[in-house]
Task: structure prediction
Amino acid sequence: MTQVETLQVDLTDRGYQILVGPNLICNAAQYLSPLISDKPAIIITDSNVSQHHLEKLTNSMKDGDIAYTVITLPAGEDQKSFKGLQNLISAILDKKPERNSTLIAFGGGVVGDLTGFLASIILRGIDFIQIPTTLLAQVDSSIGGKTGINTQHGKNLVGSFYQPRLVLSDTTALETLPRRELLAGYAEIVKYGLIGDKNFFEWLEQNGRPLVDGSQKLRKHAIIASCRAKAKIVSKDEKELGNRALLNFGHTFGHSLEAETGFSEKLLHGEAVSIGMVMAFDLSVQKGICSPKDAAQVRAHLASMGLPTRPTDVPNQTWCSDALLKHMAQDKKVHKGKMTFILTRGIGDTFITSEVDNTEVKALLAEAIAV
Amino acid sequence: MTQVETLQVDLTDRGYQILVGPNLICNAAQYLSPLISDKPAIIITDSNVSQHHLEKLTNSMKDGDIAYTVITLPAGEDQKSFKGLQNLISAILDKKPERNSTLIAFGGGVVGDLTGFLASIILRGIDFIQIPTTLLAQVDSSIGGKTGINTQHGKNLVGSFYQPRLVLSDTTALETLPRRELLAGYAEIVKYGLIGDKNFFEWLEQNGRPLVDGSQKLRKHAIIASCRAKAKIVSKDEKELGNRALLNFGHTFGHSLEAETGFSEKLLHGEAVSIGMVMAFDLSVQKGICSPKDAAQVRAHLASMGLPTRPTDVPNQTWCSDALLKHMAQDKKVHKGKMTFILTRGIGDTFITSEVDNTEVKALLAEAIAV
Result:
């Protein structure tokens, strides 16, 4: 198993390991076994993931004599709702979990966010393990411990900080992932280069195409680099009192675009982040703190990969800058009524600021949505 | 303000103070002010408490220039439900809270448990302050950080460990409390004597009657002693991995009685605990580890105060030992299918054990419910 790389996330009360490599699902039992009690593990998955990968996981658990039970959710973001939460809690309590029971989140971001939140509140907190099956979840949502559900007031306004006991990121699982979803995950990988690692961004400029086209080796390298970058930030600021907010680069703009498209298939989260990061560069250029050359370089790379870089790249969508601004003002990161922005002095040099006027944002939005 | 006593709860990441004394609600602003940001505090209360005490609190906040807003819930345990949670989350999000917003739980255990749980999950965790207005909440539920709601599967199966930033226990507020509720709270006070402080139990034997009858001084002494006992245990074992379970003395039996009476007015929580503690003594006597004299002494004191000490003391209720046993088996504290019991070697000498056979429990239940 020399192909498996291990990364340690250090946290005061409970750190954990992230394992990245091929065929981790087929060999899951050996990693799960030391962490699971005699109570049957409860695997939470969705109908898509179940179809492609569940048998590999359950076969391994059978071989390893790990008792388990499975709850399969319908696929889709609407599971991350109050209704979805209540249904899943009921399904889990039907299985009579005890305090040493373990939940296994087996799927993408929706399954991971929902399962993590549930683990944090069932019996006032039980263990959970992440086995993310999308690129987006492997490089972002499965690590760092942010969990949550959506309400009519907005995304992830209800949730917790709750860390998994282990993350198993199987690069082989990505082979069944649609290209569009791979690209959406790739946008979050690019984010790590943009926020603090210019060399990594340049590596992505060289290797992004073969990575998305299928290279296991390049994918593993990029996932590890992404996890390492995120773990470093999270270890220092688990509850986002400071620099963890850098991980939201491109997300304030991105969330408002997603809100306008109803968090639908029309615009995937990673696609929204791709556009949002370019907008953050453009705003930084507009404020005279970043060179237009860097902004152009970022836009060129994302576009060359096939990612959208402007709101107008979204097909069949008309935009309204007032509506976008309103969504931005509802973001969790608002403080004293002022929005927090992650701006940049150039590739790899982002920073947090609330020194942005509404008029500047309006001007940027107007330009961004102009056809 | 020499009449106000302060107790520090030490916890690794965030300790807090419990203040106990008269007229704390009228003077709340001076204690709240250092902890509340410029965002309006959100006071969560219920219709009963609002009627008796809200104006005192809001007058103080006005005088102290602390901005606030109020959400008044219908009184009653059914607010501690999924439906209640969802409604309250929606009402709070309508007020656009930010991460530095503070919730104030102003009421009894229901308001405190629900508000604490909400504070732990809104925006992934915001501050909350407890201003408990019942004796039960002042000596038990407002301190220690256990929050939760009930589901159809049982009580408090969904919740979190989440500590308040401050607890203000106003002994004056108890003057409007019905005697039956005072007595129910008194049962939890007796619990602290029984689990680890024989001297305190003997003090209660001497002072219990005037305490319940209205002595501010005796009430303050008992509340402080109770909070000190609980804080000492919680500081060492916040997440109930060990000795914190001692605080559940009488609760496994008690919960099963409450479940059978539908958690209704028929049997208050403290009354159920009173009966449960006597049953735990009786079981300990039955196992030959506790003297019948101690059991009789405990029963005599609780009965002399006017508390029920046998299931058959509950009016208009028939009991079934199988049903009670079934409820006990669904308790959160079940481990490897074995129930955990808090038994006792005598007054002030309790311990945790799972070495109790179902046949012993059945025999005890049969005797307890025999008319």
Summary: The interface with chain B takes residues 12-13, 38-39, 82, 86, 89-90, 93-94, 96, 98-100, 117, 120-125, 146-148, 151-154, 156-161, 239, 330, 332, 334-336 of chain A (CB under 8 Å). The mean pLDDT of chain A is 94. Residues 180-369 of chain A form a domain with the Dehydroquinate synthase-like, alpha domain fold (CATH 1.20.1090.10). The first helix of chain A runs from residue 28 to 32.
